[in-house]
Design brief:
The chain is built from 3 helices and 5 strands. It is an alpha+beta fold. It has a single domain, classed as Molybdopterin cofactor biosynthesis C (MoaC) domain (Alpha-Beta Plaits), CATH 3.30.70. The protein starts with 22 loop residues before the first strand and ends with a strand.
């Protein structure tokens, strides 16, 4: 399989989706941030001086999904139907996992939108907590599943 973002001369090119049929598409992405116990406790008890960390990160994730084409050069702007953002705090590891689900009826997939949303949620958590803990680690940003389009369904084992 060749690279879809290269033309016949090997130059960067945005994929032409004009002839494709719009279908229902969904993508789910996840990522984690690990932090100190103090930072984790501040986030989960809503005691961070900058405000409610998870509510802010959720809004940031939704905004990121809607503006992915402004950040990733070869992404198509998409009329996003829905963005769902959930957080899963893990007390034993002082970490928070984020899951973003993005839905669209369109000619191209929403994997990048879901990944972008998860990434920006995690960066927002970092930004809001860095006064408490500068050693936080963002990790494991990955596509969990996607459906729709020519390549069909993918689900991470």
């Amino acid at each position: 399989m060749g690279f879809t973002h290269l033309d016949d001369k090997g130059r960067i090119s945005m994929v032409d989706v004009a002839g494709k049929e719009a279908t229902a598409r969904v993508a789910v992405a996840r990522g984690s941030i690990t932090m100190s116990r103090d930072a984790f406790n501040a986030v989960t008890s809503d005691q961070v001086a900058k405000g409610n960390v998870l509510a802010t990160a959720k809004i940031a994730a939704i905004m990121a999904a809607k503006t992915t084409a402004n950040t990733i050069p070869l992404c198509h702007p998409l009329p996003i139907d829905q963005v769902i953002v959930e957080f899963f705090p893990h007390e034993e590891s002082s970490s928070i996992e984020v899951e973003s689900t993005v839905k669209v009826s369109g000619k191209t997939g929403v994997e990048m939108e879901a990944l972008h949303a998860a990434s920006i949620a995690l960066l927002t958590i970092y930004d809001m907590c860095k006064a408490i803990d500068k050693t936080m680690v963002i990790s494991d940003i990955r596509l969990m599943e996607k459906s729709g389009g020519k390549s069909g369904r993918f689900k991470r084992p």
